[in-house]
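Re: the 297-residue chain
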Amino acid sequence: MSLIVIVDLAVGDGLTRDQAAEVADVARDVGVSAIRVSDGPPGELALLDACAVTSFLATRHPDLNWIVDAPTTHNAPYNLARRVLALDQATNGRVGLALRAGDGDGVTESVAEDLPKPGLPVDVGGAARPHRWTEYTRVLNELWGTEPVTHDGRFYRVSGEAVGQGLKPVLVADARDHVNWVEASELADVFVVPRIELVDGGNTRLTDAVWHSHRRRDHIALVARAGIVRENGRTTASELARWSTNHALDGLELATTGGRDELIGVLKTVVPRLEPTTGPTLRSALGLPDAVLGAPV
């Protein structure tokens, strides 16, 4: 049974750029579906920018697929849309975006002092972040289209030419951000469930959300995020495969808090036994259909 296998890579947080390159060497050899480059928790400024790290690593490994983490915090929609699309085009379709729900950015606030607009609860303890994620994602899809963008929403005001010229980059929704499942299934290509212990019913929930958003279930990948260690690699691999079958998962995202040696150990002992899916683009590796810029998603 082949599975989507995504491996987390947090560069700058206990892992240097050169160590990340070593990990990527092994990831290529064992055939991971994609590497997700972390940008740090939403609301915090990362030590190293994930787009810059991905650009460096993708130059070294043009045959690997990448997912760039970026929070709404500190990232204006127009700037992020251009950066991610440029990476995706430079790698011939091998880069996607995991948008994390955070707060605002200086660019938006400076040009739209009256935002956020009334209509939703005051953002106490991040309550408005899922709404911000949805609006930000809608803006991204407009910017990745081909028509001029004029968006005047609750959190963002964007006006200008679209930046898209080909296929829309893969967009990942992370359930750790408490995004609305129906809205996420309408907008995203991949849905990551935060802990494998909590994935019970995830496929049923996503299938219901897809029905409401008028998408097809097989057009969205359901991935469970699992924390693992290398010491029990063989046992972990069999357990993960069993979990994937029992819960109708399309794949797994492997995360470890260890450094270079821990990551390489996980790659060598766990990933090959999961038989990861691969492909010449991120979409094909994840089993996703093409998405044309400007077309309904």
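The CA atoms of residues 45 and 127 lie 20 Å apart.
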